[in-house]
Request: fold
Amino acid sequence: MIVDKDVVKDIAALALLEITPEIAEEYITSMSQILTLVEQMQSINTDGVEPMSNPLDGIQKLRLDQVTEGDQRVYFQENAPSTSEGFYLVPRVIE
Amino acid sequence: MSLHEKSIAEIVAALDSKKFSCRELVSHHLDRITEANGYLNAYITVDREKALTQADAMDKARASGNAPILAGIPIAHKDIFCTKDIKTSAGSRMLDNFIAPYDATIVSKLKAAGTISLGKTNMDEFAMGSSNENSYYGPVTNPWRKDYIPGGSSGGSAAAVAARLCVAATGTDTGGSIRQPAAMCGITGIKPTYGRISRWGMIAYASSLDQAGPLTRSAEDAAILLEVMSGFDPKDSTSLNRQVPLFTQSLNNSLKGLKIGFCKEHFGKGLSSDIENAIDIAIKQFESAGASIQEIELPSSKFAIPAYYVIAPAEASANLSRYDGVRFGHRCENPVDLADMYRRSRSEGFGKEVKQRIMVGSFALSAGYYDAYYRKAQQIRRLIKNDFLAAFESVDLIIGPTTPSTAFKIGEKSDDQIEMYLQDIYTITSNLAGLPAASIPIGFSKGLPIGLQIIGNYYDEASILNLAHQYQQETNWHKMSPTAFSLEGIQPSIKP
Amino acid sequence: MSRSDWQVDIGLELHVQLLTNSKIFSGASTQFGASPNSQACAVDLGLPGVLPVVNEAVYEKAVTFGLGIGAIINKRSVFDRKNYFYPDSPKGYQITQLNYPIVEGGKIEISLKKGKTKIVNVTRAHLEEDAGKSIHDQFHGQTGIDLNRAGTPLLEIVSEPEMKSSEEAVAYAKYMHQLVTYLGVSDGEMSQGSLRCDANVSVRRLDDETLGIRTETKNLNSFRFLERAIEFEIDRQITALESGESIQQETRLYDSIRDETRPMRSKETATDYRYFPEPDLLPVEIDDEYIDIIRKQMPELTEHKSERFMVEYDLNNADAKLLASDTALADYFEEVTGISGDSKLSANWIRVELMARLNRDSISIKGSPIPATETGYLISLIKNQSISGKIAKTVFEALWQGESSAQKYIEDNNLTQVSDSKELEPLIDSILANNPKQVEQYRAGKTKLMGFFVGQIMKETKGKANPQQVNELLNQKLNL
Ligand SMILES: [Mg+2]
Ligand SMILES: [Zn+2]
Reply:
């Protein structure tokens, strides 16, 4: 799999990463390398094999519907870059 | 014997008989850190005051007779485990300012058992790496040789244990990140069955592969810590809801009748001959202890690396989306708008390898590629699991090399991505299958440690630890200590 | 523009907030109206190292809903991650169910004008988490993010694109609103966002066999906005197509002030959601036993109930439907019937006497001043002829006015019906004796005079005489 500039640009847009032209070149090389490695998968037949998301094929255990978490806003927001009146602030979102 | 060469059991006995106090023990290790960390860079954060306060508390508890079982044992946590009130960086600039508002479950469990955390250890950023060169805080040096990597991603933990800067440390293993640095630093490390240890508070890399475990100097120490760390956690619904075996109780079982398998494909091409020779010697040791050795086949294993480099980046690409500079973590200066804030915060906060894996993972999940990449990888994963299930029909344990080579020089493989990825060729299969696996030291090559990997069946960490402990009863490799950091200086040698 | 040249196809996605104490994946409260971020715990904030755990109540609610619309309940359902960046989506992905939703299929019958009805098929209903809220106008040049709502459990109900007008769409949404409220699946508080609607609207020429290109108008939180947005979209799309333009498949927002829809700018690039199974959650498996337990706990559905009322209580269709239409009313009726022993008389009394008063004074059945026990007792007195229907009405009005006990009121006012012939006979004899002329005329064939005699007796007894008993005695005495 050879990755080109457009693929790198599209994927970077999806992943919200900034890609300068020099970095784009690096990514073209490294992603092509990795995806070529990954392509080896295609040489094994997996028809009819159930995909495995969890190694133990486990089943979810459900939680009781109880309120266990109280208000820790002040504490949590100590980590926040920008807050006001209890809100997290981000640059203006235009809808 | 100096304070920092003792096993956990020896320390507990010494503390019980008041040979030294918790404070003495802890400050001794803190002094060693002060002396060596500038060189090793094994710790990102050391909290001296807190450790000493806790040591005093444990001395008090001991005096009053109600001390928990591991009261006073100095340990270190990989900086991927959230710790209340101390920075948790995951080796990333993104979290350089992050103070977790909670302890990871294993941090609480180890605290409750009386262990004292000396600090947080260095690691590859978000656990992505096999050499510890991908840390925002700089590479870690292998205690056995200057300018060599310690392995990764739990490189700081492995180096700290090997250099006796703590008694034991926690680590995480997504594709080999406990076992590979354990092998390269000459210590014991075990990744238990997926789900054995809660992932709550452990910063996610690839959720379906990540598993925590202890890095220790011996199998016995590992068994002690694993007992404490394991168990169902209602906060992690993927954690195993079953009784935790008493791993320490089966360490002395006889190896008579034990069936050990090895996979021929693990030997030969790509494996250093010193490692192969060391494994041959270990095998003879197992046989003389009454175990039998047979060949097994794991035909799908050769697709493990390709499958891993789809699944892990795919899960990572989503796991790392929460780092957006809104609620915590790095935010860029003066963003012009929201999109700019997202892009620059993420691009500045993440290092190169992390961004690369996010890109690969996003690609593998993107429209039109999902089936050929992600789904295919998940199918291969099942084939790998099925291979192991078939093998465990005829053997109890599977052994082989942990790594294809011993530690290499810092920077040596930086230009060759794929070569670096192949470091995990032997370890990745047990993550994909969710099986327990350990690495123990079995010799040296040119002064650098060699690791043996032992893979067990599901839930059967006990057999792994039993084999490892029996081996360590007969050999001294695990007692070797890198000279630069040992006052007595046991000189490494290649003979057991 | 001529609407008659076009047909309209509408599919709805309803986001129903499930009525739970805690969030779908965390133990934070779902209470409405808390101060910003005071109910956003570490899991809701997507802090590093946190993990979701599924709330069992969301499964109970989803299965209840599925049974309520006769859908297939999937024994195995799987959560997936839907990846997209938005400041009110803290993890950068939403946990939802893509390929294995909990509910599939099912249908409902909606009522339209002129007594018409229509079946609308449901495609699926899946569980997911809600996002937070963005406040755009409170901070200069900045947007405030409140994550209290993040992680609130939602059931997304997706219909087939089978509705042909805004009337049908609104009828569908209203029915679903009633149903989820009735079943206790949601509190149905639309003003608090408990039910939000996305409308997929497309138009095509009458002879076109395939659906046109659709637009999705998001987050319509009232029936009126739903109707207005659909109407606007229909007109806009027809106008565009008739003037030779094409329709963009896009997401739109409804502006209630300008009464128009417009494309959402913030998500203008077609998003690739990169769905994959949520590795932090395992598949949920439920069995028949679990489904049965929920089925037994469920309130009886309106349709089932009205059918049962017809069979069990021999009610006519209209009475059965009316009484079954509201749980509290149906319960009232069943209690009254249980006491009175006469279902038809009870239905009649509730409809004519009780409901007329409730409607007149705008009181709900739950607020009725007359408890079912009193109504039932009163009707039992009519049934065993202790009082006449007329007196019963008097007593009922007294109860309505605040009298607490029918029995006491009847006793205090000496209203019990006289059925004893020993008491009535002398009275009848004296009336016959005092009216010889009428007796003679009656016996000569003027049988209409029976009413005159009955009236006289009723007058004497102030209406308490049992009319049937009086009739019998008069017959005996007059037809000698
Ligand atoms: Mg929708
Ligand atoms: Zn939705």
In short: Chain B has 15 helices and eleven strands. The first strand of chain B starts at residue 43 and ends at 46. The pocket of magnesium ion (ligand 1) is lined by residues C 13, 198 (CB under 6 Å).
